[in-house]
Amino acid sequence: MLSIKKLPKKISIPLLSFGVISLGVFMFDLSFSSQYNKNNTTQIKEKVQQSEQFNGKKFENIGQIAPKTELWATLKMYLFEKEKPSSPSAPIEVLPITKAQLIELQQNHQQEGLLFFRLGHSTLLILLDGEFWLTDPVFSKRASPFQFIGPKRFHETPIDIKDLPNIKGVILSHNHYDHLDKVAIKQLNNKVEHFYTPLGVGEDLVKWGVNRDKISQLDWWESVEVNGVSLTATPSQHFSGRALSDGNKTLWSSWAVKGKQGSFFFSGDSGYFDKFKEIGDRLGPFDISFMETGAYNRMWSEIHMYPAQSAQAHLDVKAKYMAPIHNGTFDLSLHTWTDPFEQISEVAKQKNIHLITPKMGEVTKLSELENKTFKQWWANSK
């Protein structure tokens, strides 16, 4: 039973092609616009118009915070300030996940409790209350509208979509290419019971063949309950767009998820802001924060956090364990590919944060985290 209620209140340049630019967070291409089309329902249009984040033409951050658009300054940085290594010098160790392994874990969920696998970047496979959930599923070789150019994966995914078991829900944070993968969504469609998106993002899914009845589009602070698991779309400080013509036409969000066997906060993409503390006050505490830690730079500090800010956001939302995500898979900024891991490891020590950094494909169980240590696997491929 699903019910909705209102709570009381990312070039690499590469340049992709002529006029098509990666800004470390999304790609531009005029043919990939996320627009409301004739299939849009009156209900969603009205919901968008009524959103406090919508100004009548587009969505805005609180305080109208927006990313800098100094293209030539950004190009200059990529030409003269790009740090090495920007990608692994040796293959990253990825632990394969099998369907049989997942089925066994699901059958024993009463004993196993909340657990998760990192599949790459911000893609997580999470078992909660006996059901599997996916966050921002990206399985393509490149985070790009084209598979011949754009940021390329450092590693294979630990499991193919065809081998996944049935998925209770897919949780999407926004529509940038490193978070919303059209091919993956189409392949997942028949395996997924329901998709949960910020306002407007679901319209892309409808265009790609997902039945509208399988999609819930939420505004900030809106909550959905699914078989005892609550999902709340929470604020983030970012932006959206898949083309030159659809900037901020869809909303972005973080997510607070709570079940009987555990809880987690999924940051999506965000700059640091005071709403993290409000999220913690209103919806915390959480067992785990899956917190964006990667693709930062002074040019876009408003919409991506530095590691120290990610650590503070983790503390703000009142989570016990911190799992840094948005790293280890794509080169989306100027820092080295290992810098997010190295910086957050140091900050976590200083702030007494229990950091969890599993390998891609490694099963991580909440019940074992208290006494579990994690190796710095990234150093082996540096």
Largest sheet descriptor: 8 strands, mixed
Instruction: Report mean pLDDT, rounded to a whole number.
Output: 91
Structural class: alpha/beta
Q: The CATH topology is what?
A: Metallo-beta-lactamase, Chain A
| The CATH class | Alpha Beta
Q: Hey, roughly how much beta strand do the residues contain?
A: 15-25%
N/C terminus separation: 47 Å
Low-confidence stretches: 6-33
Number of strands: 17
Envelope shape: globular
Rg for CA atoms:
19 Å
The secondary-structure element order is EEEHHHHEEEEHEHEEEEEHEHEHEE
Tell me the CATH superfamily. Ribonuclease Z/Hydroxyacylglutathione hydrolase-like
| Strands ordered across the widest β-sheet | 1-10-11-12-13-14-15-16
What's the number of structural domains?
1
Given the structure, what is the number of helices?
9
Percent in helix: 10-25%
CATH architecture group name = 4-Layer Sandwich
Task: Describe it.
The model is unreliable at 6-33 (pLDDT under 50). This protein has 9 helices and 17 strands. The longest helix has 13 residues, at 339-351. The chain has one domain (10-381): Metallo-beta-lactamase, Chain A (4-Layer Sandwich). β4 and β5 form a beta hairpin. With 382 residues, the chain is α/β, with parallel strands linked by helices. The relative contact order is 0.18.
In a few lines, what is going on in this structure?
This protein is 20% helix and 22% strand.
Write the layout of secondary structure elements.
Layout: E1 2-6, E2 15-17, E3 20-21, H1 42-50, H2 71-80, H3 99-107, H4 109-112, E4 115-120, E5 123-128, E6 131-135, E7 167-171, H5 182-188, E8 192-198, H6 202-207, E9 215-218, E10 222-226, E11 229-234, E12 254-259, E13 262-266, H7 275-283, E14 286-292, H8 307-316, E15 319-325, H9 339-351, E16 354-355, E17 364-365
Parallel strand pairs: 6-7, 7-8, 8-9, 13-14, 14-15, 15-16
Antiparallel strand pairs: 1-10, 2-3, 4-5, 4-17, 5-6, 10-11, 11-12, 12-13
